[in-house]
Amino acid sequence: MKAWFYERVGAAAEVLSEADLPTPEPGPGEVRVRIEWSGVNPSDVKSRGGLRTRVLPFPRVIPHSDGAGVVDAVGAGVDAARIGQRVWLWNAAWGRPFGTAAEFCCLPEAQALPLPDAASGEAGACMGIPGLTAMHAVLMDGGVAGKRVLVAGGAGAVGHYAVQIASRMGAAQVISSVSSAAKARLATEAGADAVIDYKTEPVAERVRELTGGQGVDRVIELDLAANGALDLEALRPGGEVVAYGSSSKPLDLAFAVLLAKNLQLKFFMVYHLAAADRARASAALQRLLARGELRHNIAARLPLADIVMAHEAVEGGHLVGNLVLKVAPG
Prior knowledge:
With 330 residues, the chain is of the alpha/beta class. Helix content is 30%, strand content 26%. Strand 11 (216-221), helix 8 (224-234) and strand 12 form a beta-alpha-beta unit. The model has no long low-confidence stretch (mean pLDDT 97).
């Protein structure tokens, strides 16, 4: 099979290589998926670039945790009826050396979920990290029904889904911060009741105006280091920040404000979701996918051969939405 891999960390153009590798065989409890689409996420490029660690966990890594394709073989103990099933994958390359930047991927059958007929393969390749992150950020700790929610970056890969899901899960008000008129349109079309351009408007002040002076109940935050002080201002007393990401600079949050307003800071990494949380978020995503109720903001579709360009594009931080690579016809 054709696959892209790296054997050391570094710049994409320097470490990513293509080769014909043996087609893997599924082990007990595994399925083999013929990959049609491979999703490229910031965590993939950070791992390849060595931003987490310079030491590879495996001698060779085929990157990308997200993907979609068709089950074409099963291992012992797996129902043969799964052969031919369209699926989307999660954690393919997390703690494993064999991700979706290849024509075939073997992984535990629980990590290959049926892709509803109403959903495209491209959409499936956006579910493992962006979709599940957004869904868990909305559903965790009682969800958002009846609450006011501020979604940071409502046009981004996760934020765009979070706006849609919050509005469908009963939020009383969904506000999103954006950085341009084009992104404001995306967030509004996704279901935001109001958008705030953080480059031209005072976000916390606008949030107070939009909420009648009360503030929001929950902030869904992609960069706590950059936005933490603003989040504390925007929250009502007793409110919470749900943070799924942060830039590398140190956190600088006012303890006095946290204390005086009884605020809560909550964090999660989508790779490490508890089994019950993942099952709940996955089931909710499946229902929305089956009903065709999610918009998928796919910024770029490239062939797998352009993986270097894809990594560089994601690293550049200028994409508005998700990037997927076409691996095989589907």
